[in-house]
Each structure stands twice: as structure tokens, then as C-alpha cells.
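Help! Submission page says 'invalid entity' but I think these are all valid:
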Amino acid sequence: MKRYPCSGCSLLCDDIIVKSDGLFIEEVIGACLKGKERFDQVSAKNRITSPMIRKNNELTDVSWEEALAKTVEIIKNSSAPLLYGFSNVTCEAQKAGMDLAREINGFIDSNASICQGKILNKAKSQGINLTTITEIINKVDLIILWGANPAETIPRLLNKVLFSRGKFRMTGREIKTLIIIDPVKTASFRVMGVRDLALIIEPDKDVELIQMLKEECCSVDSIPSGGVAGLDKNDLKRLLLHLTGAENGVIILGQGIIQPHANYDLIEELLDLLQLINTRQVKGRISLLLLGGHFNMAGFDHVALSSYGVSGKLQFENKKLVISEDTIISKINKENFDCSIIVGTDPISHLPHSLSSKLAKNPLILIDNHKSATSHIADVVLPTAITGIESSGLVYRIDQVPIELKKILNPPNNIPSDEELLNQLIEKLNGGAK
Amino acid sequence: MEALNNLDFLLNTIRKIDNDQAKEYSFGNEQSLEENLAIAFINPKDFDKLNLVPSLHLKISNKQRNIVVKIEKDDNIQEGIISMPVSIWSNQLTEILKNELVYKNIVVSVEATREPILKFKEIIQKIRGIE
């Protein structure tokens, strides 16, 4: 039995005990439901273990040689390739993807840009206080879940940060106050105790709450008697006292807070509020933790920054990085691409119909290890090993801490890792030389 | 088919561990996909306002498209909100605003219907332009 990190989600729990003979996984101890599902994917019935090409509207098993030849043909016929996904692969594979994008003069972006990467991007101008899981465990006395439901998205997060005893705290859960701000009473509400604060906010009224908190930051006496955004005055007073009085607080942000609005920018409003609180806070500070589900959603920005000097999306022309105002959304929406290479994600499921239908109009190459809605559209499907079980590599945890994933088993049919496959494609495109 | 009752709601898409598309694609089949993802949750008071009964489905429409899904009562959902797990069904109604994706608070019109649930294959055909 050995200890391995789990690639079931972005928490990358490094305390999972796996019993394996190198051929099969016999037992997994300590994983949550998502982690268990990750390990079960090795033998999942919808696992893809052979490359496929769409022939007569049906995906058909073919040899690697034929699949790679078809892939190279599609890429060579393209003048504006789009590469997207890369949050469920290692940093090494992300780097290989960026190198491929440079080689074929493509545009590359990750799922992070439509998720928590948006917050980091907006924080470039005004700064952001981030924190780590270890710091939350050891120091935090206030945890706020805002539009976030970790009980169902990152199941062991609250177990680690809320119920744990910290190095600098003599007690654990007893001194940690939990506040949840959400229009839905999610599963995360079930861990709340008597001294915690449940704020069921009216839908789409977060901005009213933030603006009130900004205005009243120094004075709890002037909160409107009727409350704000469906929240009671006394609850608002408690929220404000916790925000300004915590020794070390963290706001865990989910998808609920990063939605765009026609007349204001909720993320900027929230970052402003945090700056204001941290300027006036006398006892401690409030930090942010950004919830992103995919196990290496945080990695893409780090790799882009270290490899090409910019974070996020990259556009290449004449094999050089160029400045582009485009985003993955605008690229697809304007149909400014003529083929797509999708790596480890399922955009046909997770993008709005207006985008998925445009993505489906052009040849689509899918690199993934299981079937999805995108495989129903793909022209070529190239399977890869399951990262963190059948291949190793570096990934970044939810709190931007690097973790090394380890290989436990060999993949079936000698399937390559994402990194190996992307490098093979570069070689093929170069006629054999990388 | 004649609408039984028609109201405006805010659609919120959410991640739920028991209604997880990644799990269904890995381990399930089209039937389990439809069972677990072609589903919407509403407050019991809204359920009554819409004259819903368990045998009826819900047609949810935005300005461009509509879907028909199963409906379940959920006390945890506020009145006026309809909640759906993130999936290919909910994303037939999600939108784009200022080059960003809108997954929450989308104004939709809702009506009870006897129409069958929208099939996964039908959605794929629509995405491929085969309506």
C-alpha cells in the first residue's frame, strides 16, 4: 500500500492510500466520492482505449498511424486552429500544447479563462490577497462561502479547512465561524453550526450586498432597517462585524460570484470591497480562495507565464506570440477558427448552444480518455492515459501550490500520456523532428 | 400543445454530486444521462403554481431555444428560481454577455407540458445543425 495524490479534483488530496500490484488497483482508502470515481475511470465502461475516426457519421476504431495521419491532415489544412481545454492535464502537457499551438500558429486557452481565471485576470490591475489550504487550516477563524458549494464540488475541502485544528490555533471547528452567502440552500449548509451564519440572498443581488458593505464598512449603525438583498439587518450586522473583526478570514469564491452583468462588474466590486476591508482591518486580513473543479485548472496560467511571459490565452502567428484581444468565447462566437483540438474537456456539454453549434461546424480533434458529448461530434478521437494514475506530472492545486502526481499503473494498449501525444503530433507535423 | 400554465423564472445552473455529467459520461449510458441531467428543481410552491403533477414535464424556454425536462420539488430552492445541474441540457439555455458565459440568473419562461423529455441524441443533432 502506498500514499498517492488524487487527481479527482483541484484539491489534490495527498493522503490517499492505494493498494495496487502495478496491473490493477485493488483498493483505494481515504478518497471522497469524486476521488473514488477518478480511480474507477481506469476500468470505466465508457473509457476510450483505441483511437477513432469518424467514417460515415460513425466513430470507428483505427490504428494509431491512421488516426495521427488524419489529425495531421486536419491541422495542415487549417489556417486558424483553436486549442482548448488543458485543465485536466499536467503542466508538462500544457507546455506541449502551447508548443503545438506555436508550431501550427494557433490560439490556445484553458477552461480557467471561463472560470476562476477570470478573477485572476481582473485582479491584475487592483491586486488580490490569495491564501493557501495550509494557511486556512493553521490560521483562519472565519470562512465565507460566497456562491460556492464545496460540499458537492470539492468534497473534502470543508473537512480539511473547517473541521481541522491548526498549528497556531488551540482549537479547531469551535473557533471557526462559517458564513454562507448563496441564493440556494446547498449541501454545504448542512455543516453549519449554531454560531455560523446562513445568508440566503435574493438571486442576482450580490452587488447590492457588496455595495452596502463598502458603504458601511466603518459603521454598523447605518445598515438599512429593511435589510439588503433579502437579508435581515441583524444578519448583515453580524456579517460586517465578522468581516472587519476576523483575525484571519478567507472568502471561498465559486461560480455564483463570477457571472457577468450588463451594468457592473461583480468581481471588481468584490475585489474593491476586500481592499477596503483589508485597509481598515486592524486585527488581521481577509483573503480569497478560488474554487475551480478541474485538477490542474490553476496550472495553465503558471505554465503560460513561465514559458511565454503572459498568463492565460496565447495567440501565435508566424510561430511567434502576438497580442490578441480575443478570448476563447469571442474566437468561437465570431467563428474565427477552422479546426479545433480539444484536450481533456467537454465543450459540447459545457458551452452554450450558440457556441457548441459553432464548434461543431469545423473539424474537431478530441484528446481525452472517456466518451463525452464532444466525442459524439469529434472527427478524430485520440485516447490518452489517465493522469495521476497511469501517467505522472506536475499540477497546481486550487491554492496555486504545485503537487507532483505519480504513476500507479501502466495504461491499457500502451496509450500515451497527454504530453507524449502532443509531442508526437509536433514531431509528425515536423516530418519526424521535434 | 397548449400551455397549461406559463411563468417567468430565473434559471440557475449548479453542480450537484448526484447529477454529475462527468460521472454519467464515464460510467453511465444515454438513459442514465437523461435520468440524472435532464432534470430541473423548483420550490414546491412554484410546483403548485404551475399545476404540475409528477407525470408532467417542464418546458423551459429562453428567447431562442427550449428544452423539456423532468421536474422535481426542492425546498432548498427559492421561489422564482429554477435550478438545473450543469449539463448539455441546461447549456441549451445558457447565454453569452460581454464575451463571458452566463450560467446563472437567466430569465426563462416555464410551462408544464406532456411533451417527452428532450433526448441526448436530439440535442447532439441540433448542435450538429440537423434539426
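Support: the input was valid. A stray whitespace character was the problem, and the output above is from the cleaned input. Chain A touches chain B through 56 residues (CB under 8 Å).
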